Amino acid sequence: MIKDLFTKPKKKKYATIPSEAAKHDVPEGIMTKCPNCKKIMYSKELTKNLKVCFHCQYHHPMNANERIASFLDQGSFAEMDQQLTSSNPLQFPEYIEKLEKDQKKTKLNEAVVTGTGRVNGHEVVIAIMDSTFRMGSMGSVVGEKITRAIEKADELSVPFIIFTASGGARMQEGVLSLMQMAKTSVALKRFSDHGGLIVSIMTHPTTGGVSASFASLGDYNFAEPGALIGFAGRRIIEQTIREELPEDFQTAEFLLEKGQLDAVISRLDLKEKMTTILDIHQPGGDFEWLEN
Amino acid sequence: MVGELEFEKPVVELRKKISELREITKEADVDLTDEIEKLEVRLEKLEKEIYENMKPWDRVQIARHPNRPTTLDYISLLFTDFFECHGDRNFGDDEAIVAGIAKFQGLPVTIIGHQRGKDTKENIRRNFGMPHPEGYRKALRIMKQADKFRRPIICFIDTKGAYPGKAAEERGQSEAIARNLFEMAGLRVPIICIVIGEGGSGGALALGVGNHLHMLENSTYSVISPEGAASILWKDASKAKLAAEKMKITAPDLKELHVIDEIIPEVKGGAHKDMALQAEAIHHALVQSLKELLPLTEEELIANRYEKYKQIGEYAVQTDNEYISTTYK
After folding, report:
1. What fold, for A61-281?
2. Which of B39, B119, B149, B242 is 20 to 30 Å from B85 at the Cα level?
3. Is residue A24 predicted with pLDDT exceeding 90?
């Protein structure tokens, strides 16, 4: 018996082979697997790195809350119009149930969060769309909240910054969704004519009616690396023209090359670059040397 | 007659029967006048029943009718001295949109409209009335010219939508549409928009930010085609008929939703049955709109557009929502 203690234990005669599903399974919460490079990393570390993959720079989706925490000065955000919710204007079947389900899931009441805040001290009005709520689709509430945010920026004479993330118009509100494109654009025009600064940062995905309205109307139009941006869906285009599209079609990088964007900016550099832009647009400034 | 639609078949059949009886009366030695009269009364009743109770899907069929009058048809019936202008000065000329200057009862105006074809050849030339970015940019160029010379702008909306193609995306379809919405908001002249056929999504809206927005009785205006909605919502394109009802896309629906100003009545059975008569109804609506808008100042016109779009949309204010007190870091 004692002898047994000094001998190596015999090799097990069987081994558990992980199933196909289990191989890809990563412990929920603690670890995150990058869908792009398939490498596994600590979720906490990833969050600290603004959810940008350490290995391949893939930008993991960010919800509105995380965006606020990462972009605005700590504690500076004050939300507006959080009491607005959809009234199901077309009495569309199953719509309210879908909304309630997403409210529970996301702890948001709609697909955009708006409010005032500061970026390295610069006062701004900000709107952040969240694609986890009904694919970030735009209905009456999203249109109204964004319009009110633009009006707020106009009233305060501060820049308006919008992070877009949307599949497009919200089907269940029909033509009212479509008209939100006009409503937000008309509001931006007034703000712009008053000299207001508009910055649009397109995140994954920005398509359809949102891309064909405020997302494209910035004085500066930026995008996050790899974001899908376009008017029509890839499948619809392929069906229409009957040819396969290039892999990078409608990515941020593709649009930059085609002249549709000012820049593609990594999330890790965004706050700093935005501060530069806000600095340059700051009224007044330090140029006494001109007078001498 | 060609181009009769499914829902009006009973009317067509009855009409055929009446003309058959007439032939018989003429040729044979029998007097069927009584019979014919009776049938004519029935026809009138039937027409009333069918055309006054059109379902959304019936209207979709009329709006898409191949013989439905197009922008150029109405231009020749409503205006004089039309002079078409081409090109966006950047890329090319998109014939899915026509733009130009003309006179309306002596008043100089600018006209812009989607243009589809009535046969395959013309449809290919016009890309089925589905514009590329250069079409929208041409429209904007001509609208800015109208602004410079203080001419009212009249837009005819008739498109399935902006063209979903590779080149269109590369040249900024989204930006072109967005830019039009933005710039139309600030034009200092009256803008009157009339949906004459299909108003398909952003591609229609890009000519649709006006002081007045009217729809022909059997036209449609929608965020997506009924087929598209059905395939997205229920993964079944054959439910288009149901989608047409649920999506609220007809002129009476949009009037109820406070999106449009006036419904322009259509000729019985649809505008294609009598183009000239239809143009008269549009003429009447244009006169009314111009009478209202021409006296307004530049600031009033811009403010009027702002208020018009600001009020569109319905939402609830919920103070007891459990998600409103989310805390932010």
Report:
1. 2-enoyl-CoA Hydratase; Chain A, domain 1 (3.90.226)
2. B119
3. no
